[in-house]
Structures are given as structure tokens and as C-alpha cells.
Amino acid sequence: MEKTMLFSFFLVALFSTNLFTASSLSVRDTEGHPVQLGVKYYILPFRPGAGGGLTLATNKGKCPYEIVQIITEPANGLPVTFSSSNKEDKTVQLNTDLNIKFTDFQHTTPCPESKVWKFDASNQQNGALLVTVGGVEGKPGRETLPNWFKIQKEDNAFYKIQYCPTVCKDCRVICGDIGPVIYDGRKRLAVNESPLGVIFKKA
Questions:
Q1: Which of 38, 97, 135, 171 has CB atoms 3.0–4.6 Å from 118's, for a disulfide?
Q2: Which stretch is the leader sequence (predicted)?
Q3: Would the CA dihedral through 67, 161, 78, 139 be positive or negative?
Q4: Residue 3 neighbours by CB distance under 10 Å
């Protein structure tokens, strides 16, 4: 009887530990709920006074769209959805390769590219490599390296977005945090030494 009780306790403890571990890896929204894949969220600055959410803008009418942060608060910007390189994931996990895609975007002269985030090594402003759109959703591998981003926890208080894909094990990549670079009156998103601390608000 005693052995049976000890074994049962071990199973409960092990199961509870696994649940806690899985839960602790989930990215949380502003309500404390796990961020769901395929559901719309606003990416907003963590610190008050740091500006509004994210949207898309052309660079003097040129495509593809650049990702810019709205300067004024409390504008939410455009919502995004997340998809994971791990098909078993049901929620957004820390340190996991993700596609990030803008939704609900309307423009009178739209660029033809997709609205999936893309690290653009050919597009540089003030020494920083920009993040634009035009990526391919899904299909992890060497050809889609620029399309994968990660979410990391910063100081147990807020999150940051990072470009450091691991969908190709034998590829050499540039790694860096994502933050705004001010150029020509706009806060453009780029691989930056100063990350933008963010939170995720369900749309």
C-alpha cells in the first residue's frame, strides 16, 4: 500500500512539474493568458512614453513596406498573428522560431509582397539592418532564414523580439535584438543594439 501511494505521488509530482515547465515557456499577453498561434495581437511598447504599436509604411513610395513604430500613444497599430516552426506547439513559446504576420492592413497603393516579417540584409539605415515584410510563412529551412524570429523574456518583466533563426542547423546567421532606429522622422524596426521591450495585447 505504501509503495503504491509513493508511486502515485511520484506520478502526480512528475505530471505537475511537466505542466509547470510547459506553462512557464509560454509567452503571456497583457491579461496573463498564453499567446495563441493564429490569433491577432498588438505588439506594444512595455514602457509608458515609448510610443505606440507597429504598422507598415513605404520608404518614399518604394516596396516592400517597412515596419515602423507609431510615435504617438496610445495607437495600437496593426495586429499580427504568429505561427511556429514547431507543429506541436499550440501557443507561442519562448526561444522558438516564429513567423510574424501583419493582418487587417489596407492601403490605396499596396505593395504586392506578403505581410510576413522579414530580416532584410540589403536594407540598411544608420548602420542598422531593417526588418521589412515580404517573407514566406512556414517552410523552415535555409531558403527561409530571414523569415524567422524569436521572443525572449527580458528581466522577468517584459519581452523582446530577436532575430536569430535556428531552423537551419548548419547555417551561419546574424543574431540581434529588434528595436527602432530613427531615420527621416520615422522609427523603423531593425536589428538594433537597443531592443524594444514589448508586451502583447489581444486584438
A1: 135
A2: 1-24
A3: positive
A4: 7
Least confident residue range of 60-64, 84-88, 102-106, 166-170 = 60-64
CA 93/CA 91 separation, integer angstroms: 6
Strand partners of residue 26 = 93
* Rounded-to-integer distance, Cα 27 and Cα 33, Å: 8
The model's confidence at residue 9, banded by pLDDT at 50, 70 and 90, is very low
Q: Cis peptide leading into 110, omega within 30 of 0?
A: no
Q: Cell 504599436 belongs to which residue? A: 53
Res 3: pLDDT = 37
Could you report how far apart the first and last alpha carbons of the chain are, in Å?
53
* Cell numbers linked to 11: 506520478
